[in-house]
Write a structure and sequence with these properties.
By secondary structure, the chain is α+β, with helices and mostly antiparallel strands. The chain is 32% helix and 29% strand. The chain is built from eight helices and eleven strands. Helix 7 packs antiparallel against helix 8.
Length: 272
């Protein structure tokens, strides 16, 4: 992946655990790699197709001066996030904040924190079969649209589907969504569960009715199996209410575990 490098940007700011560090301030140095596709900028010679590194440098300087954190880990995390949000062409960032002559009571050249952060592609399945089904989905859309850590890339039409597993309940409204997110899979799970609770969902029996249900189908191409979360979703290949909306927005996305596209999984399910 292409990138722009920023080396040793010096800023004077107030970050540190000690009171005098926050009061007096000190010099920090920032290194960064801004990852994005430079092909269009290189072909057109148009700054609008690139990332203005002068603007980024001034942004980092203003950020470091405008905040005070005890930990440079926090400064790095917050700065990386804000750059990724402020500059849409940047897909990921490698960021290092150096603290020369850190006051540790021993001779030392510097202490530094280095992190890598970026946008991740994920697919979600949303459903509702209680209360105002459409309103529950639209409220979830609203909160995602207004979350800086989420960009909605594609969204399917809302369709009505038969209940799955437990059939003696109301029909569902379902849809699928492709997003770009700064959240980790675990953070995304927590966020989705919070949206479900805001919609009024409480712990119910398996496959039972719910005002809002959000499942993470894919997250990049990872395969994850933890106590709390399995990605890709373990039963998506058996669910028309998942595959039909996904067919609309991503028919050729391939399941990294079973090596079939959405289209292939939909055809296999229909043939059963």
């Amino acid at each position: 992946m292409d990138y722009i490098t920023i080396k040793n940007l010096e800023v004077f700011s107030r970050h540190g655990v000690l009171e005098e560090e926050n009061r007096l301030g000190q010099k920090f140095a920032i290194n960064a790699r801004l990852y994005f596709d430079t092909k269009e900028a290189g072909s057109t010679d148009d700054l609008n197709m690139s990332v203005d590194y002068s603007s980024v440098c001034h942004f980092m300087n203003a950020f470091m001066k405008g905040h005070t954190f005890k930990l440079i880990e926090t400064a790095a995390e917050r700065l990386a996030t804000d750059i990724l949000i402020e500059y849409p062409r940047v897909t990921s960032i490698w960021l290092e904040i150096r603290k020369p002559w850190a006051p540790i009571g021993l001779p030392i050249e510097e202490v530094a924190v280095t992190i890598e952060r970026g946008w991740h592609r994920a697919f979600l399945s949303l459903g509702s079969n209680m209360a105002d089904r459409e309103m529950s989905l639209k409220e979830a859309f609203y909160y995602m649209e207004n979350n800086d850590a989420i960009r909605i890339l594609k969204q399917s039409e809302i369709i009505e589907t038969e209940p799955y597993g437990m059939t003696n309940q109301e029909k569902f409204l379902n849809c699928a969504m492709e997003i770009s997110t700064l959240m980790t899979p675990e953070e995304m799970l927590t966020y989705c569960k919070n949206l479900e609770r805001m919609a009024g969902r409480v712990k119910t029996e398996h496959w039972g009715p719910r005002p809002l249900d959000i499942d993470i189908l894919f997250y990049d191409d990872i395969i994850l199996d933890s106590e709390k979360l399995t990605i890709p979703h373990p039963d998506m290949q058996n669910r028309f209410f998942v595959l039909d909306p996904m067919m609309e927005i991503a028919p050729y996305v391939r399941h990294p575990g079973i090596n079939k596209t959405i289209k292939e999984m939909r055809e296999a399910l229909a043939a059963k």
